[in-house]
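Example S7 (C-alpha cells).
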C-alpha cells in the first residue's frame, strides 16, 4: 500500500506528463495547489491526468468531473480511497 506522500509524488510525475508547460509550478506544488487556477488545467489536461492515473495506479474513475477535483490534495484523496 502506498503512503499518501508516495501517491502525491507519483501524481506529480503524472501532472508533468499531462501538462509539461507548467513544469516549474508543478515541481513546487503541494496538496493545496489548485488544478485550474494555479496550474491552468483544462478539460483536456484533466483527461490526460485521469488516463495516466488509471494506468499508473490500476484504478478506475467512476463518474467524476473536473469539478470533483479542485486541488491536488483532492486527487490524492480520491486515489488513496480507491487503493484501499
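Recovered sequence:
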Amino acid at each position: 500500500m502506498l503512503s499518501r506522500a508516495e501517491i502525491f509524488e507519483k501524481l506529480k510525475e503524472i501532472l508533468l506528463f499531462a501538462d509539461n508547460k507548467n513544469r516549474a509550478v508543478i515541481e513546487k506544488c503541494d496538496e493545496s495547489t489548485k488544478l485550474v487556477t494555479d496550474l491552468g488545467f483544462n478539460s483536456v489536461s484533466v483527461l490526460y491526468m485521469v488516463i495516466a492515473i488509471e494506468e499508473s495506479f490500476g484504478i478506475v474513475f467512476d463518474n467524476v468531473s473536473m469539478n470533483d477535483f479542485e486541488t491536488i490534495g483532492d486527487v490524492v484523496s480520491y486515489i488513496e480511497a480507491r487503493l484501499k
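Notes on this example. Helices lie at 4-18, 23-27, 43-57, 72-83.
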